[in-house]
Amino acid sequence: MLVLTYIPLLFFALVTAKKSAKNTDAVKEKLTLMAAQNNGVIKLNDDTFDLLTSTDRDWSAVVQFTALKSTYKCEPCKQLDPILTTIGKAWNKVNAAERNQHFFASIDFDDGKETFRKLGLTQAPVVSIYPAANGPRSPSNGKIDALLFDFQSSGFDTGLIVEQLSRHTPVPIPYRAPPNYALIITTLVSLVSFAAVARFVLPFLLSRWTWAFITIGTMLVMTGGYMFVRIRGMPYVAGGSNGAIIIARGFQNQYGIEVQIIGFICECLLSPVEDFIFEWQFRWFAIVKFHFLDITSSTQRISIKTTLRGLRLARSKCHVILK
């Protein structure tokens, strides 16, 4: 008797499942047609948004929420909209079997005010990723809630956006960046210009003095602590109660302006009046670091003297190279 009781329920469940499958197929056909009519991007309103994001869906979707009307003054929306159009056109190149498993869509505020209100959206643009709710592409954890696309890591770079969205599509989006004609033209003009002035420029580029100055300049900048300042993000100068502070306290800190000061000091060590400059530089260095920073340790004094002697040795080696 129990078996006879459950037979009508099973029959009703099968009929309902078949009807639901037919409805899902009909919705997918409608969405496919809408995508084909608009270069791969479905233009949504409140009703079609509910169809696209139905809980019975066996497809995934990327939906862009925008406010393109000029009165809203949404410049990011105007930047993002052509990017989605480009992605939609690229997605159209995928074969139909896989293309129809994922849709790209856009809904504007004027066409979907109820949808914006229902989702609690108070700003635009927003891109949401809806995973498949049923079928083999549905999440293993069963979560079918929309995922928010993060613009912090990609900005409005089409290539980076495509790379991230491809993680949610059946196959990677076949996007190819268009040729950078501005770069190509600039490169050609530069080559032609260089060829025209090569006979005047080559003697200068082939001169050992040119490369000596470049090499020494690089050495001076790096010796001054340029990489330390860039890596640590140190400020150019620091503000103080009595004005700008140009010398950082201690040996573990350095301001940007100190790169120029140390570079200038090292350059002075290469001058013809080297002995006089060396003594002057050492005294200046001692005054700054000993008096203002209260460095009284004999070990620290010896360390500074050793550093300056090393610079003096580098100076003599540079003289040999230039000769």
Keywords:
12 helices; endoplasmic reticulum; 323 residues; 7 strands; alpha/beta; single chain; membrane; 2 domains; signal; 5-stranded mixed sheet; transmembrane helix; two-stranded antiparallel ribbon; 10% strand; Glutaredoxin; transmembrane
Description:
Residues 1-17 form the signal peptide. The chain crosses the membrane at residues 181-202, 209-229. Belongs to the OST3/OST6 family. Pfam families: OST3_OST6. The chain has 323 residues and is α/β, with parallel strands linked by helices. The chain has 2 domains: 2-168, Glutaredoxin (3-Layer(aba) Sandwich), CATH 3.40.30.10; 181-322, no CATH class. The chain is built from 12 helices and 7 strands. It has helices at 2-37, 46-52, 75-91, 96-99, 113-119, 158-165, 181-205, 208-223, 226-232, 256-268, 274-292, 298-322, and strands at residues 41-44, 60-66, 102-108, 126-130, 147-148, 238-240, 243-245. The chain starts with a helix and ends with a helix. Residues 9-20, 287-301 and 317-323 have low confidence and may be disordered.
Q: Note the beta-strand portion.
A: 5-15%
Helical content stands at: 55-70%
Q: What is the CATH class designation of the largest domain?
A: Alpha Beta
Cα-based radius of gyration, to the nearest Å? 34 Å
CATH topology of the largest domain: Glutaredoxin
Order of helices and strands: HEHEHHEHEEHHHHEEHHH
> Structural class of the helices, strands and pairings?
alpha/beta
How many beta-strand runs? 7
Q: Which CATH architecture of the largest domain?
A: 3-Layer(aba) Sandwich
Query: What is the overall silhouette?
Result: elongated
Give the name of the CATH superfamily of the largest domain: Glutaredoxin
Q: What is the rounded distance between the termini?
A: 111 Å
Question: Domains counted in the coordinates: how many?
Answer: 2
- Summarize the main sheet: 5 strands, mixed
- Please list the strands of the largest sheet in the order they lie side by side: 1-3-2-4-5
**Total helical segments:** 12
**Average pLDDT metric:** 77
Low-confidence stretches: 9-20, 287-301, 317-323
Pfam families: OST3_OST6 (PF04756)
Signal peptide: 1-17
Transmembrane segments: 181-202, 209-229
Subcellular location: Endoplasmic reticulum membrane
